[in-house]
Amino acid sequence: MEKRELEEAANRVYRFMMHGEQAEWGSHEWTDWAMNIDRWDWNSGVGIIAAAEFGKMSREDWAIQEVEDWVNRNKWQSDSVKVINSMAPYAVFPLLLEKKADPYYAAKAEEIAFWMMEQSPRTGNGAFEHTVTEKASFREQIWADTVFMAVLFLARAARMLSNRRMADEALRQVLLHLRALQDDGTGLLFHAWNCEAEDWMSAARWNRANAWNACGVPMILEALEGCDFGNWNSSDDTGDSGNSGALAEIKGRYVKLAEGLMLKQNASGLWPTVLDRPGYYEETSGSAGIAYGLYKAARMGLLPDSKQAMACADRATAAVISKIGANGAVEGVSGGTPVLDSVAAYNEVPIFPTLYGQGLTLLLLTEAIDLSKSR
User: Fold this and answer.
1) One MF term from GO for this chain (predicted)?
2) Cβ–Cβ under 8 Å, residues 349 and 281
3) Which of 92, 215, 253, 296 could potentially form a cystine with 52 if both were Cys, beta carbons 3.0 to 4.6 Å apart?
4) Are 355 and 35 in contact (CB under 8 A)?
């Protein structure tokens, strides 16, 4: 695909995400939650992470400035929503510190990272418990979303602060989540695991749950690349005496995930909203996240067959671009999805534009543009 076409699509997606008018958001009851960028939560956080990556790749100072402007407008909300699922916006702080040299970013990132390490709710096995800004409790539940929403920030904070303990904990959390959620038979991930009931609840191999890890794991490994990790205690919950074994297991599990995902891609280039239900509707945001992860993992040498992964991601990129409207709205995105009562219920989730749909698509296009420079 031509670089110019990718750039044009990325600019449209960015505009709708950061500057879309309320009249463009649609008429459904979730419009404000779905598209109001000025909230400190995971939805806007995914968009802001993507905007920062776009600005970094394109070397557009105005995009980085808009990310900083967003933080300055919305940081007043952050302390009142200190939950695992609202950590995502902090993932841009290391980049902003690098670009803007404002000590606020280092101080706040350190404060939040230590809160995660010392005070955030944990499940019995030590994984971050899924806590949210809404009035809902998910006691003893491990959700796939957390790897992207929280662990990515912790990994980037570890690098920024040169904190080996944080780096170790980020890797430990990735491994705890993969072990809890991965289906050994297919390599795919279930949406969530209930530590008390010891089951996967709906047992849905949900598209976007897999996407959060398909893209989140290589982003985390990239953040920690070259760090001096140190060792874990042999009695640690992961069961590892050192992180070299953990890294090998994470990479091995990621290969199984990627291979499982490539097998489930539809002929259209997209993935169904439940991966082992090919007749279910195709979902764009998760497809974008999966493709972005495949591109990134292939570039990082995480996959044994990088050509296959690139080809798979190329097909997905073309399909995702076909879902971008003239105004930049990404179509075919399922609404916010908790763990549902049944697999069939995932096929009933309504579809409308969201900030995470825009963000995952922008991440994919950003990576594709960067790749086009050397292809």
Assistant:
1) hydrolase activity
2) no
3) 92
4) yes
Which residues are paired to 194 by β-bridges? 141, 199
- Separation between Cα atoms, residue 93 and residue 155, nearest integer Å: 12
282-283 and 271-272 strand pairing: antiparallel
Amino acid occupying residue 304: P
Contact 165, 114 (CB under 8 A): no
Long-range CB pairs of 95-100 (<8 Å, 24+ gap) are 95/52, 95/56, 95/64, 95/67, 96/52, 96/64, 96/67, 96/68, 96/71, 97/160, 99/64, 99/68, 100/64, 100/68
For residue 222 the two structure tokens come to 């990239």
Return the C-alpha torsion angle 183, 280, 334, 254, nearest 10: 30
Q: How far apart are CA 372 and CA 209, in angstroms?
A: 28
Residues 6+ apart with CB under 8 A from 138: 129, 130, 131, 132, 192, 339
Q: What is the pLDDT of residues 129-182, one digit of tens each?
A: 987 666 655 778 999 999 999 999 999 999 999 999 999 999 999 999 999 999
Query: Could you give the domains of the chain?
Result: 3-372 (1.50.10.10)
How many other CB atoms are found less than 10 A from the CB of residue 239? 13
Place of tokens 């539940």: 141
Alpha carbon separation from 169 to 118, 127, 152, 204, 336 (Å, rounded): 11, 10, 11, 27, 28
